[in-house]
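Give me structure tokens for this 470-residue protein.
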Amino acid sequence: MKPFLDDDFLLTTPTAKELYQVAKSMPILDYHCHIDPKEIAQDRRFENITQVWLGGDHYKWRLMRANGVDEFWVTGDAPDREKFQKWAETLEVAIGNPLYHWSHLELRRYFGYEGVLNGETAEEVWQLTQEKLSQPGMSARNLILNSGVTLLCTTDDPADDLRWHKALRDDESFPVKVLPAWRPDNAMGLEKPDYPAYLERLGHAAGMEIKSFEDLKEALKRRMAEFDAMGCRASDHGITQAVCRPVSDEELERVFQKGVEGQRLTQEEIEAFQTGFLTFVAGEYNKLGWVMQLHYGCRRNTNTKMFEKVGRDTGYDCVLQGVPSLKLAEFLNLLNDHDALPRMVCYSLNSNDDDGINSVLGSFQDGTPLGRVQQGSAWWFNDHKAGITKQLTSFANAGLLGNFIGMLTDSRSFLSYPRHEYFRRILCQLIGGWVENGEYPADGKALEKIVKGICYNNAVEFFGFPLEKV
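Here you go.
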């Protein structure tokens, strides 16, 4: 019987263990996360582990509710120590869940705790982490530095003023590059009741009034220029599903005006506006050399009662079934016909779409190094052992795994970087198994290049970040 979480955790073959030594040495490039740049700029300190671990973590909140924990101890006003106790008691029964592994990796890597967290050990863990968090090395910046991160991209709205990014850019004492990533979901949310108020905010940021769809495009271009000047290299779109319903400019303007006036839009009109919006921004990204990321296949805020009580991003989302790859193919073809297809990363939350996505993306490669379009890393409900293995295998079956841009953190927590260790161990186990089984030669040089590429170097090249390969 192997010890829990030993040095060879998830690694069962000699080749896997050798490859992990290569992966382990690589720095981390976090090209998609939800960390607040203000907290980095101000070098936030955390009073206790609940603040840094449970604050905003809807992954943990979902499990706590599933364990019968009342919302008072989840997102409510319960004392932090009590919330932590409820989480420890929940974790005890989370066998097979990736949060069990992540949580214990984080306790070991950041706090040096070699035990197991459960209801009985919660007090000793609380006391240990209290003492550790009071040390200088546990501030937000030092947590990033000590995790081996060289660059991270936050998630920023076009209307954001980027002042915290400017402060970080001008602060030579912090060597990690913190870049904005463009997330214009609000600008595309024409069907939402608060859209007119958002347009006013966006117009203020762009220094203009937005009264038409053409005005909206001009405002977005102005803000893109500001983001680009701050080093932005990536956009990201969270959409329900891929769309492709092109209409005339006149029809787009009619739909835009209808939405701004607060009239109810049909599903066809929403898709037409989304298609026009995405087509426009994709063309601009292509001009700027930005990567366009599409995250889709998620049904958000499925529990209306709890959405009204605790808001969005609180753990009430689910995987959307029946996401067609045909619309993705049509959209990419539309962009390609207009010479507006940027480098792109496509993620579906429904892992059943993996093979379909890869077959579509393979139809739009054009000789661009590492490929013009890629399938994104397994994310959210899929970034567990089985899901990561499935995504990597699908990528390898339909394309070139050696060109994959690898793992993203996709987290609001400064303690989430061991997720990259988790991913790298699974990656090395998979590749090592192929070598041990005679499916790929035991070519150390070639294997090292593949592992280094997936862990770090490919993302440097694909996004065009100002970093040196390792």
